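Summary of Year 1 activities. Much of the first year was spent building the evaluation harness for sequence design. The harness presents a backbone, in tokenized form, and records the residue chosen at every position. We chose the following record to illustrate the format because it has been used consistently in internal testing since the harness was completed.
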């Protein structure tokens, strides 16, 4: 059972670089405004105190709720917006950091004025307990707490405090709000992007969500950045040969910075996996068996269909080959390849070669497992901010290599 949602408005203003920046719309401006001009709405871009850009989603009739950070009022009339970027953060309370990444990327792309940047915040049960946190990241009254573990928030797991709500319902609600033509009549594109644990989330959300194709006038695309595990659409796995050979971290790094280091690897073979090594290797969220959480009741066939038909691009940092920063070294994940880059490359190759998919793979030059480096790279900006109708150019430079 999925609940209906509403957004609780919160006016947010911040003094940045000598200017008062407000998110929440212009007083008196709305669909019935008689001026005929597009209202001028200043974005909330307080990089030093992102809580100034905080808003709340209330589930059903409440009181359960979740926070987001956004550059503009998420329920305020704004005809100037043409697209939206929803960012799903990595592990360890990174919602605010990813909001900063999104602001930086929007500035670099020249897209801040016509793009709503929204960052999620998946509060886990360890915040302020075994995981230290600043006061602004602690749980607030009635805030939903999301699960860690097997079917975590990364995979559509249900809330620990409100089991009727799953982590995929959270982004469903954001999408529906942004698709409201009464507030955003000119918004036509939504990009949902994640990195690391957020990349895991977007890989699974892309194939599972029930809003894509149901919101008129909205095109949705997905960007999956450097996940350390994915939901495999078949029981086979990459064989430990060719580009999936279990090299040492030092060997993998040297290969990634070689002559063809920015070209996707393609030498992958696939075959049965030894079930004895990891009996649950093909269970959700690593595969499509024993579906649960948001995907309970869905068929593996429907998930495969969505995976192939929806617009998704995978990002891999050129040198994201080391087992660092929360790398998933579980037997279920190890079945997918030796390191993040190889796992992503093998996955995209399989979907395109054997399932008829048209997924794109982009190697981001010079980047390791660094979200700021990847999300602000020149060859990533057009994916996060696809051009709306009309001409648009993007700045080009050194891909972060200067």
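For this record, the design step produced the sequence shown next.
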């Amino acid at each position: 059972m999925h609940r209906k949602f509403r957004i609780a408005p919160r006016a947010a203003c911040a003094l940045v670089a000598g200017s008062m920046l407000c998110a929440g719309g212009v007083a008196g401006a709305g669909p019935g405004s008689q001026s005929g001009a597009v209202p001028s709405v200043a974005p909330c871009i307080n990089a030093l105190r992102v809580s100034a850009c905080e808003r709340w989603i209330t589930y059903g009739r409440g009181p359960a709720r979740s926070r987001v950070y956004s550059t503009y009022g998420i329920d305020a009339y704004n005809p100037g917006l043409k697209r939206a970027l929803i960012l799903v953060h990595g592990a360890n309370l990174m919602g605010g950091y990813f909001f900063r990444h999104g602001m930086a990327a929007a500035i670099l792309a020249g897209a801040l004025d016509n793009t709503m940047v929204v960052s999620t915040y998946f509060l886990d049960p360890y915040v302020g307990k075994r995981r230290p946190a600043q006061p602004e990241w602690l749980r607030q009254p009635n805030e939903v707490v999301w699960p860690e573990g097997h079917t975590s928030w990364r995979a559509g797991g249900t809330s620990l405090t409100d089991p009727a709500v799953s982590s995929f319902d959270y982004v469903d609600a954001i999408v529906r709000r942004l698709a409201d033509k009464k507030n955003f009549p000119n918004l036509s594109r939504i990009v949902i992007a994640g990195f690391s644990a957020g990349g895991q989330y977007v890989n699974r959300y892309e194939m599972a969500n029930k809003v894509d194709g149901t919101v008129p006038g909205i095109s949705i695309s997905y960007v999956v950045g450097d996940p350390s595990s994915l939901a495999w659409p078949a029981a086979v796995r990459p064989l430990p040969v060719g580009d999936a050979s279990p090299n040492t971290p030092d060997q993998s790094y040297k290969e990634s910075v070689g002559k063809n280091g920015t070209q996707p690897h393609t030498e992958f073979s696939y075959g049965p996996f030894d079930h004895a090594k990891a009996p649950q290797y093909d269970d959700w969220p690593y595969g499509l068996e024993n579906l649960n959480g948001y995907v309970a009741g869905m068929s593996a066939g429907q998930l495969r269909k969505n995976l192939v038909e929806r617009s998704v691009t995978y990002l891999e940092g050129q040198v994201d080959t080391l087992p660092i920063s929360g790398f998933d070294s579980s037997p279920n994940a190890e079945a997918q390849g030796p390191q993040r880059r190889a796992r992503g490359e093998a996955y995209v190759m399989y979907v395109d070669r054997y399932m008829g998919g048209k997924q794109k793979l982009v190697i981001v030059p010079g980047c390791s497992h660094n979200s700021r480096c990847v999300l602000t790279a020149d060859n990533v900006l057009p994916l996060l901010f696809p051009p709306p109708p009309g001409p648009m150019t993007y700045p080009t430079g050194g891909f972060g290599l200067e």
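DSSP finds nine helices and 13 strands in the chain. Quantitative recovery figures across the full test set are reported in Table 2.
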